[in-house]
C-alpha cells in the first residue's frame, strides 16, 4: 500500500520524525530501562521532562517571564470551563466573540458560571470576522474570549483585537505554534494538543500571573490555574505521555527553524489549495472571506454544494490514500487540514488530484 496522506482536522498527523523517536524510546525512556508509561510522575526523570517541555514552549513563543506555562488534562473543552472558573469572578461577566462552532461552545459553557455578553450579532452562517469597530464590547467584562482559528468553519483571525485593557483570552487549539504570536498581547492562551502540537489528553495553557488567584470557590482543583501552576503542573498524575509527545513535536518544530518556518510552510500549503479553488471558475467554492481564510483548515464545496459530486471527490481521494477530507457535519462539503506535520509534498498530491477532478467534471 502506498503512503497514507492524512488531512484530518484532529487528532491530526504527527511528524514522521517524531514517530521514529517515540518508537525508539517507548520501552526504554532516556536510558532508565523502563517506559515513560510506567515512570513515576514524582521521579527526577519526569521532573526534568516537565521542565524541558515548558522550556521549549517558552523558547518557541518567546513567552515573557510574567506568564506561567501549565499542562492540564481535559483538552480544549476542559478549558472552556476553566476560563470562566478562573477568570469571571472579577465582574461576573465576560465577552465572547463568536465566530464559529468552537467559540459558540466556549460561550455556552461559560454561561454556567456567569453572565456572557455576545460581542457579535448571532448567526448560523460563519464566513467572516466583522470589523472590530462594530463589536459590542463591554468595558466591565472580566475578559474577552476569542477562538483564533475556527477548525470547522476555517476562519482564522488575521489581527489581535484591541480590548482596551480587558484581558484577552484565546483558544488556539487549531493554530497553536503555526506562526509567531505576541504573547504579551494576551492574558491567557490555551489549546488542546491533538492538532498542531501533539496528541489528545493534554491542554497547553499560558497565563499571565496577575490573572491568577481569582478562581471561583467552586473551581475544581484540577482546572484551577493557580493551584496547578503552584504545583508546576504535577498536582495529580499528569497526562505524562501526551506532554512528552508535545515536547517531541515542539523540539521538531525548533529543529526545522521555529515558528517562522511553520508560518512559511503554512502559507505555501494553504495557497496551493486556495489558488486552485480561485482558479476553478466557481467549480470549487470557499465560503470564507479572503482576509480571514484559515491556513490550517480549508473548507470548500464543489459547485453549488453538489453533494453527489462531493461524495465522488471524497471516494476518489480515498482511492489515492488522501484521507479524512470530509467536511465537518455542521457545514458539509470538504475540508483539508494542513497542520504543521502535513508536508508540502502531501498537499501537492491533494492539489494535483483537485486539478484532475476539476478537469474531468467542469
Ligand atoms: N477548540 C477548538 C478550536 C477545537 O478545534 C477543538 C476540537 N476540535 C476544541 C476546542 C475542543 O478540543 P477537545 O476535543 O480537546 O476538548
Automatic annotation (TrEMBL):
<dbReference type="Pfam" id="PF00266">
    <property type="entry name" value="Aminotran_5"/>
</dbReference>
<dbReference type="InterPro" id="IPR000192">
    <property type="entry name" value="Aminotrans_V_dom"/>
</dbReference>
<keyword id="KW-0808">Transferase</keyword>
<dbReference type="GO" id="GO:0004648">
    <property type="term" value="F:O-phospho-L-serine:2-oxoglutarate aminotransferase activity"/>
</dbReference>
<dbReference type="InterPro" id="IPR015422">
    <property type="entry name" value="PyrdxlP-dep_Trfase_small"/>
</dbReference>
<dbReference type="InterPro" id="IPR015421">
    <property type="entry name" value="PyrdxlP-dep_Trfase_major"/>
</dbReference>
<dbReference type="InterPro" id="IPR022278">
    <property type="entry name" value="Pser_aminoTfrase"/>
</dbReference>
<keyword id="KW-0718">Serine biosynthesis</keyword>
<protein>
    <recommendedName>
        <fullName>Phosphoserine aminotransferase</fullName>
        <ecNumber>2.6.1.52</ecNumber>
    </recommendedName>
</protein>
<keyword id="KW-0028">Amino-acid biosynthesis</keyword>
<dbReference type="InterPro" id="IPR015424">
    <property type="entry name" value="PyrdxlP-dep_Trfase"/>
</dbReference>
<keyword id="KW-0032">Aminotransferase</keyword>
<feature type="domain" description="Aminotransferase class V">
    <location>
        <begin position="5"/>
        <end position="350"/>
    </location>
</feature>
<comment type="pathway">
    <text>Amino-acid biosynthesis; L-serine biosynthesis; L-serine from 3-phospho-D-glycerate: step 2/3.</text>
</comment>
<dbReference type="GO" id="GO:0006564">
    <property type="term" value="P:L-serine biosynthetic process"/>
</dbReference>
<dbReference type="GO" id="GO:0030170">
    <property type="term" value="F:pyridoxal phosphate binding"/>
</dbReference>
<comment type="similarity">
    <text>Belongs to the class-V pyridoxal-phosphate-dependent aminotransferase family. SerC subfamily.</text>
</comment>
<keyword id="KW-0663">Pyridoxal phosphate</keyword>
<dbReference type="GO" id="GO:0005737">
    <property type="term" value="C:cytoplasm"/>
</dbReference>
<dbReference type="InterPro" id="IPR020578">
    <property type="entry name" value="Aminotrans_V_PyrdxlP_BS"/>
</dbReference>
Amino acid at each position: 500500500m502506498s503512503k497514507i496522506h492524512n488531512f484530518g482536522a484532529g487528532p491530526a498527523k504527527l511528524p514522521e520524525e517524531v514517530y521514529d523517536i517515540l518508537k525508539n524510546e517507548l520501552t526504554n525512556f532516556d536510558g532508565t530501562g523502563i517506559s515513560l508509561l510506567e515512570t513515576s510522575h514524582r521521579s527526577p526523570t519526569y521532573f526534568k521532562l516537565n521542565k524541558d517541555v515548558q522550556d521549549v514552549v517558552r523558547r518557541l513563543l518567546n513567552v515573557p517571564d510574567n506568564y506561567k506555562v501549565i499542562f492540564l488534562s481535559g483538552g480544549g473543552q476542559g478549558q472552556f470551563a476553566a476560563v470562566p472558573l478562573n477568570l469571571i469572578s472579577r465582574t461576573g461577566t465576560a465577552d465572547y466573540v463568536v465566530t464559529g462552532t468552537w467559540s459558540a461552545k466556549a460561550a455556552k459553557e461559560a454561561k454556567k458560571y456567569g453572565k456572557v455578553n455576545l460581542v457579535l450579532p448571532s448567526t448560523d452562517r460563519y464566513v467572516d470576522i466583522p470589523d472590530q469597530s462594530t463589536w459590542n464590547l463591554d468595558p466591565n467584562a472580566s475578559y474577552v474570549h476569542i477562538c483564533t482559528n475556527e477548525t470547522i468553519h476555517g476562519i482564522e483571525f488575521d489581527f489581535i483585537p484591541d480590548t482596551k485593557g480587558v484581558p484577552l483570552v484565546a483558544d488556539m487549539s487549531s493554530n497553536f505554534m503555526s506562526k509567531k504570536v505576541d504573547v504579551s498581547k494576551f492574558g491567557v492562551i490555551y489549546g488542546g494538543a491533538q492538532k498542531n502540537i501533539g496528541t489528545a489528553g493534554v491542554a497547553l495553557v499560558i497565563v499571565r500571573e496577575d490573572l491568577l488567584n481569582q478562581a471561583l470557590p467552586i473551581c475544581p482543583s484540577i482546572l484551577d490555574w493557580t493551584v496547578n501552576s503552584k504545583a508546576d503542573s504535577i498536582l495529580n498524575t499528569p497526562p505524562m505521555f501526551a506532554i512528552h509527545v508535545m515536547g517531541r513535536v515542539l523540539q521538531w518544530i525548533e529543529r526545522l527553524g521555529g515558528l517562522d518556518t511553520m508560518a512559511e510552510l503554512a502559507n505555501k500549503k494553504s495557497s496551493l489549495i486556495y489558488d486552485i479553488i480561485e482558479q476553478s471558475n466557481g467549480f470549487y467554492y470557499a465560503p470564507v472571506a479572503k482576509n480571514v481564510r484559515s491556513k490550517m483548515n480549508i473548507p470548500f464545496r464543489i459547485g453549488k454544494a453538489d453533494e453527489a459530486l462531493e461524495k465522488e471527490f471524497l471516494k476518489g481521494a480515498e482511492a489515492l490514500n488522501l484521507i479524512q477530507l470530509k467536511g465537518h457535519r455542521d457545514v458539509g462539503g470538504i475540508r483539508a487540514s494542513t497542520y504543521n506535520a502535513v508536508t508540502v509534498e502531501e498537499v501537492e498530491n491533494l492539489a494535483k488530484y483537485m486539478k484532475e477532478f476539476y478537469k474531468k467534471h467542469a
